[in-house]
Structures are given as C-alpha cells and as structure tokens.
Amino acid sequence: MGNNFLNLALLIIFHFSMPTFSMKLTTIHTDQSVLLALKDHVIHDPENVLTTNWSASSPVCNWFGVSCGSKHRRVTALDLTGLGLVGTLPPHLGNLSFLSLLYVTNNSFYGGLPVQLSNLRRLKYLSFGNNSFNGEIPSRLGSLTELRRLFLYQNNFKGVIPFSLAYLSKLEVLYLFENQISGSIPSTIFNISSLQEIDLSYNMLSGSIPSVPRDLLLLEVIDFTSNNLTGHIPKDTFDHLPNLKELFLSFNLLSGRIPASLFKCKELQVLSLSFNQMEGSLPIEIGNLSMLQYIYIGRNHFEGEIPKQIVNLTLLMVVDCSQNNFTGECISKN
Ligand SMILES: *[C@@H]1O[C@H](CO)[C@@H](O)[C@H](O)[C@H]1NC(C)=O
Ligand SMILES: *[C@@H]1O[C@H](CO)[C@@H](O)[C@H](O)[C@H]1NC(C)=O
Ligand SMILES: *[C@@H]1O[C@H](CO)[C@@H](O)[C@H](O)[C@H]1NC(C)=O
Ligand SMILES: *[C@@H]1O[C@H](CO)[C@@H](O)[C@H](O)[C@H]1NC(C)=O
Ligand SMILES: *[C@@H]1O[C@H](CO)[C@@H](O)[C@H](O)[C@H]1NC(C)=O
Ligand SMILES: *[C@@H]1O[C@H](CO)[C@@H](O)[C@H](O)[C@H]1NC(C)=O
Ligand SMILES: *[C@@H]1O[C@H](CO)[C@@H](O)[C@H](O)[C@H]1NC(C)=O
Ligand SMILES: *[C@@H]1O[C@H](CO)[C@@H](O)[C@H](O)[C@H]1NC(C)=O
Ligand SMILES: *[C@@H]1O[C@H](CO)[C@@H](O)[C@H](O)[C@H]1NC(C)=O
C-alpha cells in the first residue's frame, strides 16, 4: 500500500515535471526550430536569403544574420535588417532564450507583435523600425528589463504607450515615431535615468508633457514633434537636463511661456517650438546658450523684443520667429 502510493506519487511527479524540465533544457536545436518557424512565416524573400542560406544542412550559427555566443553556442543575435522580407513574426521567437539583439528593421513584416517576445529576458536591443506592424504595443514589453534600445518607429502601431515602458530602467533610446499612437505620454517616462534619446514624433499623442523629476544627465534629444500635446512646458523641465542638445516640440497645441530655466541647458543646439500657441517673450538668457544653431519659434503668440544677446551666438545658423507678435524686426539669420 505504502509502496504503491510512493510509486504513484513518483509517477505523478515524473509525469508532470517532465514537460517543464524539457522546456527549460533548451538547446541549439530549439533555436534552430524557432528560426525555421520564422522562415515558414516569411511569405516573400526577394533576395532568397532565408530560402537558400537558412538550410538545416548547415549549422544555425552560420546562417545569415545569426550570431551565437562563443561559449554556449546559442543564438544571441538575429539581424535581418533590410532584406525586403514580407511576413509575420511567429510566437516561437519567444523561445530564443539567449537572444540579446533582434533587429528586423527595413522590411515589410506585418501583423501584431507576439506577446511571447516578453519571454526574451536577455534582450537589450530590439528594432522593428520601418515595417508594417500593427496592433498595440504589448504592455508586457515592460518586463524586458535589460532593454537599452527599443525601436518601433515607422509602423502602424495604434493604441497607447504602455505605462510599463517607464519601468525599463536601463532604456537609453526610445523611438516610437511615425505610428498612430494616441493617449498620453506615460507620466513617469522621464524617471528613466539612463535615457539618451526619446522620439515620439508624428503620432497622435495628447495630454501634457510629463515633468522631469530627476537629473537626466545623459538625455540629449527630446522629439515630440507633430502630436496633439497641450498645456504648458513644465517649469522644472530644464532644471534637470544639463546635456540636452535638441528639443523638438513643434506642431502641437502647447501654450504658456518658455520656462526661464531653459538657459540651464548649456549644450542646446536646436530649439524647435513652431506651430504652437505659446506666448510671452523669449528669455534673454537665450543669449547664454552658446551652442545654439537653430531656433524655430514661428507661428506662436510670442511678443516683446527678440533679445539682442542672440547676435553673440556665433554658431547660430537659422532663426525662424515669423508669425508672432514680436516688436521690431525678427532678426533672421540664414
Ligand atoms: C550563409 O551566409 C553566411 C553569411 O553570409 C555565409 O558565411 C555562409 O557560407 C552561407 N551559407 C550557405 C549555405 O549559403
Ligand atoms: C516555442 O514556443 C511556441 C509557442 O510560443 C511553442 O508552441 C513551441 O512548442 C515552443 N518550442 C519550440 C522548440 O519552438
Ligand atoms: C533603412 O533604410 C534607409 C533607407 O535606405 C536607410 O537610410 C537606413 O539607414 C536603414 N536603416 C537601417 C537600420 O539600416
Ligand atoms: C524602409 O525600408 C525600405 C526597405 O524595406 C526602404 O526602401 C525605405 O527607404 C525605408 N524607409 C525609410 C523611411 O527609411
Ligand atoms: C523612479 O525610478 C526609481 C528607480 O530609479 C524607482 O525606485 C521609483 O519607484 C521610480 N518612480 C516612479 C514614480 O516610477
Ligand atoms: C489632433 O486632434 C485633432 C482633433 O481631435 C485631429 O483632427 C488631428 O488629426 C489630431 N492631430 C494629430 C497630429 O494627432
Ligand atoms: C549669462 O552670461 C552673462 C555673461 O555673458 C553672465 O553675466 C550671466 O550671469 C549669465 N546668465 C546666466 C543665467 O547664466
Ligand atoms: C498679436 O496681438 C494682437 C493684439 O493683442 C492679437 O489680436 C493677435 O492675435 C496677436 N497675434 C498673434 C499671432 O499672436
Ligand atoms: C556680445 O559679446 C561682446 C563681447 O563679449 C559684448 O561686449 C557685448 O556686450 C555682447 N552683446 C550683447 C548684445 O550681449
């Protein structure tokens, strides 16, 4: 009785732990079957790269676009940039458990992003830029905590920017430009201290620009051009961006003044605020931003004098302050 019970128990344990065990024990053969599944999901391969090169008769690590780790010989990078591929991404991709780079930029993949991508916990570099992907950005991408670069630009993504992306605490570059993303910018997006560039331009984002709660010493580019952002630029924004080089906020519905703290951005090269509803004057401290090359502030309700100090900005190449209420000449440098 006791023995039978033990045997039964062992049998049950064996039976139920087996699948789990074999799933964890993935090998290069897992990687191969994943890539063959991807190949199956590609319906057009104009340069015959996958068709001829991704052959089961040669080792996976020698396949075009595939890189393997030197020690464990598992697929660590998959770069299929610019091959003109048409197809969808299979859920199997989530099984490439050693993958740290996945680039499929400049192809014609369509359909949604498989949620299984969120299983790729080692992923650092992810680009789906310039394809025809649609659907929503899976909020589970927020669990890819090793991500440095997330490129979803030039696709047909709809819906909102998942709040979870603000938890990607190692993120350096976020490019979501040229999609149809709506809703507001996650309010804590500027809590990511590793951020270097954020480009959300040419979407349908609304709401206000989130405040910057901490020093972002690496942030150089903010591009929110052509959305439906409203409200003021938060006063504290420029207190925390000592290395900001390019600020693009044109073609929105922003109101209010340029915060005087802008002069703290000593590295600023581009200030682009045209086509908004901003008012007030241009702070004279703008004359202290000696790196400025481009000032675009046309089509707003700015008034007062253009500070004379800008004549001393030796690198300045373009000032567009047309269609405002500035008194006197709008000094144009071209
Ligand atoms: C596949 O492409 C790789 C990289 O270009 C090349 O080294 C390899 O010889 C090719 N293999 C076959 C079977 O064509
Ligand atoms: C990989 O993942 C898919 C679904 O996510 C699953 O059906 C499949 O069995 C897994 N294993 C391999 C080797 O691809
Ligand atoms: C994508 O294609 C464009 C146009 O040919 C090119 O400028 C760009 O560098 C390509 N992107 C990548 C990541 O290769
Ligand atoms: C997008 O990729 C295609 C190749 O698939 C390329 O011809 C085109 O120039 C790219 N577009 C941009 C804007 O880079
Ligand atoms: C901001 O980031 C820190 C870690 O750098 C984290 O502890 C904190 O919870 C974050 N705050 C918000 C509001 O996300
Ligand atoms: C801004 O909102 C208006 C009205 O809702 C809409 O017609 C327009 O297309 C939107 N523009 C952008 C860039 O989202
Ligand atoms: C701007 O520069 C002038 C000297 O060119 C200096 O006297 C002034 O303190 C500076 N202002 C700020 C806010 O840095
Ligand atoms: C300029 O000021 C006048 C008078 O205050 C106002 O009617 C007009 O709308 C303003 N124009 C712009 C572009 O702000
Ligand atoms: C420009 O710089 C020169 C030399 O530093 C200074 O004498 C002059 O007052 C400055 N002009 C303006 C308008 O700030």
Automatic annotation (TrEMBL):
Leucine-rich repeat-containing N-terminal plant-type domain boundaries = 30-68
Using the record, list the residue span of the signal peptide; answer none if the entry has no such feature. Answer: 1-22
Q: Does the keyword Zinc apply?
A: no
Q: Where in the cell is it found?
A: Cell membrane
Q: Which UniProt keywords apply?
A: Cell membrane, Glycoprotein, Leucine-rich repeat, Membrane, Receptor, Repeat, Signal, Transmembrane, Transmembrane helix
Q: Does the keyword Magnesium apply?
A: no
Q: How does it sit in the membrane?
A: Single-pass type I membrane protein
One Pfam family here: LRR_1
InterPro entries under this entry? Leu-rich_rpt, Leu-rich_rpt_typical-subtyp, LRR_dom_sf, LRR_N_plant-typ
Annotated Gene Ontology cellular component terms: plasma membrane
Protein family membership: Belongs to the RLP family.
* Protein name in the entry: Leucine-rich repeat-containing N-terminal plant-type domain-containing protein
**Native source organism of the sequence:** Gossypium tomentosum
